[in-house]
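Lecture 7 notes: from sequence to structure.

We start with a single chain of 186 residues. Read the sequence below before looking at the structure.
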Amino acid sequence: HHFPAKYEFQKANSMDTPAFRLDNLRQQPEDITVFMCGKCRLPLGDSSDWDGRIRKEGVVHLNAVSENVCCPNDSEGVISSFPNETYCVFQILQCKGCGSPIGRIYVSTPKTMDSKVDVFILNLSAVTTYTLGSAKKQVVPQYDIPLTLEKCHEFEQDIKKCKQILGVLQRKVETLQSQLESQDSP
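Now the structure, written as tokens:
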């Protein structure tokens, strides 16, 4: 199976209590965490589709993933051997770029676990993350900022002003020195 760029699933029961979502706490829209393949760094999904929890099993649940997530064409359902997952069937999720296994998607569960069906479950051991906007929060030393023609023109104007001020100050100092010298002479 190949999933479209934002393959989303509807919850079967709209009466479900809303899950905690990271975006409820997000102050700025640019603070989105991108989940990337740990091997080739292709983006797999982001926190806008995440329920905001890291499970004790070391996984995150996403309601949608990028087109870089796929199931192998020859993939058959795998009967789960995870604790408390009797009768659960899932398919392995892979990174389309490098073929690394990155998680699973449940296709069949007992009724008590239906909330896991059609949810993309990514293994944290197989992914890496990057928070958008985190680079803006780092202080860039002034000398690392690129120099543009516009900035060069501004610098030239500032240098001209400084030279004019220095010229005026130099003349004033010379005037004061000559006045002091004339007072000191008999």
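Residues 142-184 form one domain. Keep this in mind for problem set 3.
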